Amino acid sequence: FLGVMPAYSAADDALTTKLVTFYEHKKDSSVPSHQATVLLFDPRNGSLKAVLDGSVITAKRTAAVSAIATKLLMPAFAEVLCILGAGVQAYSHYDIFTELFTFKEVRIWNRTKEKAVKFANSVNGPVQVCSSAQEAVTGADVIITVTMATTPILFGDWVKPGAHINAVGASRPDWRELDDELMKNSVLFVDSREAALTESGDVILSGAEIFAELGEVVKGTKPALPEKTTVFKSLGMAVEDTVAAKFVYESWSAGN
Asked: Which residues form a coiled coil (predicted)?
């Protein structure tokens, strides 16, 4: 797939387009499944100002949005973090989650155990490698799914009541990470209703009702409900890349 994600933010005076290639590798590959480039333009005249590494921006901004959702939606006493998947997004999520939150225990599971072991050995803090997704999830307060799964790998009867789930993978209308039980028995938050109803297999195929967009919670027009079991379905929005690219460009400019 080749995705094109243009966006303009009047508030940030920023105009960008992100170009993303997505190749589903049948076998493990040294080349990432997602590769991206962000083009930053001058909104006044359309001149190209910068070409940025979109893969880094995507990894960082996706994890940042998950962190915002988690700050708002996670239970009051969250001690155990679980990450399902060990790719690029697992690393970016681990970095920001361990920087912003204090977890007593971090667990990881990956379909290929070697990648989970590599992850645990390469990050700064202690991480427990689990032999099954169920083992990793049981008793976890915050769960992050960043897998290439096309059928559910996280099941509702495993999840602790009141836990918060950031569902980041399964970005196609026929792909799943979460089962029907979890989708239907949780309070569902999304980044974009429109995107979720056209792109997310977890939302479309389960028929789960969307309670709110994350922006509505940030603005205070919808409650967060952290006492409930919550799911944040993240698909990503072009404006997130725009704001991030402008921030990187301004930081670079200030240094020059």
From this structure: none
- For CATH 3.30.1780.10, the residue range(s) in the chain are 2-56+239-255
Tokens of 74: 């996670």
Q: Where are the alpha helices (DSSP H) in the chain?
A: 54-73, 88-100, 113-122, 133-137, 180-184, 193-199, 201-206, 214-219, 238-255
CB atoms within 10 A of CB 185: 15
CA separation for the pair 166, 230 (Å, rounded): 9
Instruction: In whole angstroms, give the CA distance from residue 211 to residue 188.
Output: 5
Who contacts 52 (Cβ-Cβ below 8 Å, separation ≥6)?
Answer: 37, 38, 39, 40, 245, 248, 249
CATH superfamily of 2-56+239-255: ornithine cyclodeaminase, domain 1 (3.30.1780.10)
Q: Where in the chain is the domain with CATH 3.40.50.720?
A: 58-237
User: What's the whole-model pTM score?
Assistant: 0.94
pLDDT at 32: 79
**Total residue length of the chain:** 256
CA distance to 44, 215, 238, per residue, from 245 (Å): 17, 20, 11
pLDDT digits (tens, 9 = 90+) for 19-72: 999 887 766 677 877 899 999 999 999 999 999 999 999 999 999 999 999 999
